[in-house]
Amino acid sequence: MSHSIPKPTDRTKVKTIFWDVDGVLADLNYAYFHFLTEHPNYEDQYRDLKWEQLPEVLPILPEYGALELKTHPEQGVEMDRDFCADQSFFTNRPLYPNVIEVLKELDALGYRQFTLSATFDVEAKTAYLNHILAPVTDFLTIECVQHGEFMHDTSKVDGLRACYEKYHLNPGETILVDDRIYNQHAAIDSGAHPVRLRCEFTTDLPPELDWIPEFENVAAVRDWLVGG
């Protein structure tokens, strides 16, 4: 699939922010580490795993650019199934520091904010997000979309387009903040502007996407938006 390259994002024109959740607002790597070291199906194998060894167990594919259970060479499918089936692990992804405060600050500045999370269990993910983001659900709209068979399918771009229509949004005034490389393409293909968040264990963008602004955390995204 070919991807058009938009003009660089003019931050002064941004009115709407779509936040990805895992690796942006919440620490999915934390959940993966505790899953591997504590789940009864894997704890014997990984009980001595060190945090910095996560990319050795879960090799980062170029199109992902971040950790995924599915990339485990032998047990990826089983790991992903077991992780999604056990809510004690599935929901064990704490918010990164200052997320609530930053979202409140951006709301006060007039930005319209959404989460858009692609997941294999929409009901469970929606319930988790409404719980962990409860302090900001008075202004933050939570949307989840169903993954297809593969992680890098069209679910996110389809979800973005549906939201533009549902909420009467202008994609040209919209950014998607996401850590996965394939979702940078989703933003572009939907007409929005991509912004990448570099959580721990992310890999560099490919050369054709190296124009996309990258930030370490949501506070840095806020500073960029407001010209700090």
Q: What is the CATH class name of the largest domain?
A: Alpha Beta
- Residues in β-strands, percent: 5-15%
Report the CATH topology name of the largest domain.
Rossmann fold
Determine the structural class based on helices, strands and strand pairing: alpha/beta
Terminal CA distance reads 37 Å
Q: Strands of the biggest beta sheet: in what spatial order?
A: 3-2-1-4-5-6
Q: What percent of the residues sit in helical stretches (DSSP H or I)?
A: 25-40%
Low-confidence stretches: none
Oligomer: single chain
Look at the structure and name the CATH superfamily of the largest domain: HAD superfamily/HAD-like
How many domains, as an integer?
2
**Sheet having the most strands:** 6 strands, parallel
Query: Could you tell me the number of beta strands?
Result: 6
Overall form: globular
Q: Report the radius of gyration as a whole number of Å.
A: 17 Å
Give me the strand/helix succession.
Answer: EHHHHHHEHEHEHEEH
CATH architecture of the largest domain: 3-Layer(aba) Sandwich
Helix count equals 10
The average pLDDT is: 92
Would you mind describing this structure in some detail?
It is a single chain. This protein has 228 residues and is of the alpha/beta class. It folds into 2 domains: 11-27 and 95-225, 3-Layer(aba) Sandwich (Rossmann fold), CATH 3.40.50; 28-90, no CATH class. It is built from 10 helices and 6 strands; from the N terminus they run E-H-H-H-H-H-H-E-H-E-H-E-H-E-E-H. The chain has helices at 28-38, 43-46, 54-57, 76-85, 87-90, 99-108, 122-132, 155-167, 181-190, 218-225; strands at residues 16-19, 112-119, 141-146, 174-178, 193-197, 214-215. Helix 7 (122-132) links the parallel strand 2 and strand 3. Helix 8 packs parallel to helix 9 (181-190). The longest helix has 13 residues, at 155-167.
